[in-house]
Amino acid sequence: xxxxxxxxxxxxxxxxxxxxxxxxxxxxxxxxxxxxxxxxxxxxxxxxxxxxxxxxxxxxxxxxxxxxxxxxxxxxxxxxxxxxxxxxxxxxxxxxxxxxxxxxxxxxxxxxxxxxxxxxxxxxxxxxxxxxxxxxxxxxxxxxxxxxxxxxxxxxxxxxxxxxxxxxxxxxxxxxxxxxxxxxxxxxxxxxxxxxxxxxxxxxxxxxxxxxxxxxxxxxxxxxxxxxxxxxxxxxxxxxxxxxxxxxxxxxxxxxxxxxxxxxxxxxxxxxxxxxxxxxxxxxxxxxxxxxxxxxxxxxxxxxxxxxxxxxxxxxxxxxxxxxxxxxxxxxxxxxxx
Length: 338
Prior knowledge:
This is Histidine kinase. By secondary structure, the chain is α+β, with helices and mostly antiparallel strands. The chain is 62% helix and 13% strand. It has 9 helices and 7 strands. Helix 2 (33-64) runs antiparallel to helix 3, helix 2 packs across helix 4 (108-159) and helix 3 crosses helix 4 (108-159). 14% of the residues are buried.
């Protein structure tokens, strides 16, 4: 059973007990029919309030981080409760059953303020449940983040099989390759730069954006060796790259996916990579024509894993869109507050 299914089950159980308590009171204390109907209508309206707060007002407040939004939202829920209650108990019930809750001469102002009081329990209950679930979800995310961090640190330690030995070996291979083939020697140097960047570690977990761009260029140049002059990729950069910082290896999975599953040897349909920086936002999109002859359906670390990493690194501050019409594949990424 998934977490969402468990949550739905708990909600159903809670409301069943809540409504059942009202019906039990009707049975045990021989309430009159009109009292039962008025109590049930109040219970149903409390449910409406509950989910208006739980699903709309509080999540919107969390996204906007604006107390005015919260205040206006809660006032709107109270007004909704008052209007619905009037429609049910003062209009529908007299028409169907011949009774109402308030007297016909009840002042409108009294009715309004009286219903503000009766509206509070549903709002309070919805808020408490939402805060409790949000706290538990945050704790769950923190545990997951700690586990993933521990796994990443372990993987990093495993990868550190004396990196200086690897660099020295690559430099030695470069010295052997240079007299034979300048292209091969250049590829070895680029590979060394890729490895050095992958093993790079900083205190805040971020690198200069220029280094991420350099990594993309080196990756493309090494990939170009397979196709020589039949490799067509347009890499366009707009905005100031220098001075910007971001977590490393965030952009490469999008490029890797395009090169692996796209057509790269058609000058009429090149792979297009666009990087744009505006203020504190980064826009990155990669598009390619789909290679129908590609048998390998895996996508590197997988875009699903990329989305999960972005959720941890940029919670509420990123959008990632994938478009696939069967012919063209395009991924678009936007990061805020880079």
